[in-house]
């Protein structure tokens, strides 16, 4: 009986552990999606930068000095944006790693809780089997004693 109460209480704790794991999984999924989105943005920036520089190099001799200065300034701004985006991608990667470790911790905690509940249930079944066997042995013993008394 005490094991059943304990198992019921632990089932509530297991539900809480499952909710914590699910919440951590959602957070991890959001972090990964944001990180992947930012990685794609960074790739697009690199691609745009390469195309712009290639185009800039091909028309270099046929443009005015002011246009060259303006284009170099724009290339510098693009480099700054790429650097900022690279830093953001790295920060998001670190956050995603932390979210994954957090999820793994919650996942492991839930698994351990399930194993504990199963062990308690199995131990309870084993104890109940021993109790039943003891009662059956007592009944058989009493039956044997009654049979002895009747035959006497």
From TrEMBL:
Keyword Nucleus: no
Entry membrane topology: Peripheral membrane protein
UniProt main location, coarse: membrane
PANTHER family found in the cross-reference section: FLAGELLAR FLIJ PROTEIN (PTHR38786:SF1)
Keyword terms: Bacterial flagellum biogenesis, Bacterial flagellum protein export, Cell membrane, Cell projection, Chemotaxis, Cilium, Coiled coil, Flagellum, Membrane, Protein transport, Transport
Example GO biological process: bacterial-type flagellum organization
Cell compartment(s), UniProt: Cell membrane
GO cellular component, as recorded: bacterial-type flagellum; plasma membrane
Key word Cell membrane present: yes
A Pfam family reported for this protein in Swiss-Prot or TrEMBL: FliJ
Family in the record: Belongs to the FliJ family.
NCBIfam families registered for this protein in UniProt: flagell_FliJ (TIGR02473)
Coiled coil: 10-45
Stated name of the protein: Flagellar FliJ protein
Molecular functions per Gene Ontology: cytoskeletal motor activity
Organism from which the protein derives: Marinibactrum halimedae
């Amino acid at each position: 009986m005490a094991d059943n109460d304990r198992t019921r209480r632990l089932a509530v704790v297991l539900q809480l552990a499952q909710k914590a794991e699910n919440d951590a999984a959602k957070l991890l999924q959001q972090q990964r999606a944001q990180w992947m989105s930012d990685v794609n943005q960074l790739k697009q920036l690199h691609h745009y930068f390469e195309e712009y520089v290639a185009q800039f190099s091909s028309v270099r001799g046929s443009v005015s000095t002011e246009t060259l200065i303006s284009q170099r300034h724009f290339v510098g701004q693009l480099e700054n944006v790429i650097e900022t985006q690279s830093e953001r991608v790295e920060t998001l990667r670190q956050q995603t790693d932390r979210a994954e470790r957090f999820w793994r911790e919650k996942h492991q905690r839930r698994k351990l809780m399930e194993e504990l509940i199963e062990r308690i249930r199995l131990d309870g079944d084993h104890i109940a089997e021993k109790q039943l066997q003891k009662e059956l042995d007592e009944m058989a013993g009493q039956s044997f004693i009654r049979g002895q008394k009747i035959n006497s």
